[in-house]
Structure formats: structure tokens, C-alpha cells
């Protein structure tokens, strides 16, 4: 017992022990008073209005689960992220920068680019609806117009015409009147086309460095040494000397503005 007392004193002086005790108090109290239970049940609807409300709630949950994808595909995020991945492969740095870094950078650049559009939607659609000045359907129409205008500004006529022809409908006089389901896929493939064109331009100087290094190694008889291993430091050096991140981000942002 005498050997245990010094250890007990040190244990009670430790702040982590008191943290654990404080965290354990609610569990001890709930163990004596009884744990709460959660019951989920499906009851029969008394009238068609209750059934319709249930379907609306399920539709809302589905839309909320797809909201991040919808938001990403209707902004500049796609082009920026694809270009960043092309850049990483062209440099040959494998997983540096990591996916988390590239996605975070692309997301914040997207917020910077889309800020005017988000502000317009908030001021013209969300605030009047929150003040009950307009209905939800009117708010959706007001929110659709700046989003559709942004996407149409960066959508090729060829891609837009493709989906109009596939839909089998005549093109309206005002392109903003097109259904959003027609504008979004045309915008996405246009963004991918632009991203691949930028990626090709990023590959060209890196490919030249790879060819020069491979030719030098071949002339020296060092055929067993991978050229990519030798060329990667030179590609990184070239990218740093020309301030590559500055140039790429500037080009991407100005391309949308």
C-alpha cells in the first residue's frame, strides 16, 4: 500500500486523468437515468397531402446529397482541377502536391472566380425569398439566370448544339431560356476540352526536357538509367524559374474573367 500511494498522488495530479473523469460523468449519469431510444416508423398517410410532403422530403434529401457534385460541375472547379493534375503528371512528381492540396487550391480559386455570381444569386434570389417577397419557384428562376449566363459564356456553340440536337428541340431565341439540363453537360465537356488543351501546352516544354535528357544519356551509353529520374529536377527547376504557379493561376483566373 505504501508503494502505491506515490503513484496515486502522481496520477491524481495529472490533468488528463481529470479530463477523463469529466468526460465519463455524463455516461455514468445516463447509465443510471436510462439511455434515450430512437424509434423510426412508417405510418399510413391519412390524405394525399401527407404522402406528397413525404415525397418532397425524399426529393430534397436526394438533391442535398448531390448538391456538392452539382455545385462543382456548374463552376470553374472542373477545369482548374484537371489542369492541376496534368501539371503534376507533366512534372513527374508523382503524388506531390497531394490530391488534398490540389483540391483545396482549386476550391478556393473557384470561390474567388465565382464570387460575383454567388453574390448575384444571394442578393436577387435568396434574400427576397427569405423576406417572403417572392416564391420558391420565382427564386429558382432568378438564381438560374446568372448560373446559366456564366456557363453559356464558357460553353462552345458546338457542344451546346450537340445537346440541343440530341434533345430534338429547336434552339430558343435567348440561350438563357434553355433548360439547365441541357446547359450543364455542354458546359462540362467544354471545360474538359479547355482543360485538355491547357494540359497539352503544359506537357510540351516538359516533353522537350525529357527528350534532351534521354538523348544525352543515350549518347553517354547510360541506357539503363531512367531518363525521367534525371529530367525531373530540371523540370522542377524550370517551373520554379518561370514562376509556374503564378503564371498558371493567373491564366486560369483571367480565362474566366
Explain how this protein is built:
With 257 residues, the protein is mainly alpha-helical. It has a domain at 75-201 and 244-256. The chain is 77% helix and 0% strand. It starts with a helix and ends with a helix.
Kindly list the characteristics that best describe this protein:
257 residues, mainly alpha, elongated, 0% strand
Task: Name the overall outline.
Answer: elongated
Number of helices: 10
Q: Helicity level, as a percent range?
A: over 70%
Average pLDDT for all residues: 76
Give the helices and strands as they follow along the chain. HHHHHHHHHH
The secondary structure category is: mainly alpha
Number of strands: 0
Distance between the termini: 77 Å
Task: Write a short abstract of this structure.
The chain is mainly α and 257 residues long. The chain has helices at 4-13, 15-33, 48-73, 77-91, 99-130, 136-153, 157-167, 180-219, 227-241, 244-256.
Task: Itemize the secondary structure elements and their pairings.
Elements: H1 4-13, H2 15-33, H3 48-73, H4 77-91, H5 99-130, H6 136-153, H7 157-167, H8 180-219, H9 227-241, H10 244-256
Helix pairs in contact: 4-5, 4-8, 5-6, 6-8, 7-8, 8-9
Amino acid at each position: 500500500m505504501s508503494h502505491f500511494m506515490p503513484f496515486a498522488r502522481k496520477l491524481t495530479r495529472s490533468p488528463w486523468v481529470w479530463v477523463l473523469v469529466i468526460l465519463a460523468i455524463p455516461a455514468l449519469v445516463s447509465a443510471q437515468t436510462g439511455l434515450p431510444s430512437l424509434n423510426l416508423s412508417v405510418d399510413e398517410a391519412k390524405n394525399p397531402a401527407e404522402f406528397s410532403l413525404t415525397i418532397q422530403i425524399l426529393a430534397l434529401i436526394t438533391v442535398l446529397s448531390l448538391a456538392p457534385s452539382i455545385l462543382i460541375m456548374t463552376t470553374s472547379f472542373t477545369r482548374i482541377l484537371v489542369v492541376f493534375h496534368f501539371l503534376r503528371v507533366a512534372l513527374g512528381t508523382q503524388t506531390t502536391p497531394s490530391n488534398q492540396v490540389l483540391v483545396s487550391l482549386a476550391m478556393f480559386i473557384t470561390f474567388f472566380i465565382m464570387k460575383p455570381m454567388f453574390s448575384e444569386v444571394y442578393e436577387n434570389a435568396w434574400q427576397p425569398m427569405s423576406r417572403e417577397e417572392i416564391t420558391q419557384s420565382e427564386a429558382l428562376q432568378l438564381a438560374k439566370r446568372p448560373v446559366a449566363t456564366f456557363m453559356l459564356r464558357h460553353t462552345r456553340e458546338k457542344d451546346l448544339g450537340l445537346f440541343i440536337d440530341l434533345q430534338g428541340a429547336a434552339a430558343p431565341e435567348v440561350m438563357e431560356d434553355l433548360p439547365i439540363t441541357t446547359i450543364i453537360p455542354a458546359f462540362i465537356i467544354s471545360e474538359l476540352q479547355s482543360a485538355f488543351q491547357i494540359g497539352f501546352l503544359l506537357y510540351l516544354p516538359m516533353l522537350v526536357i525529357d527528350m534532351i535528357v534521354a538523348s544525352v544519356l543515350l549518347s553517354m551509353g547510360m541506357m539503363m538509367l531512367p531518363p525521367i529520374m534525371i529530367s525531373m529536377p530540371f523540370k522542377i527547376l524550370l517551373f520554379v524559374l518561370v514562376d509556374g504557379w503564378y503564371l498558371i493561376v493567373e491564366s486560369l483566373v483571367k480565362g474566366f474573367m
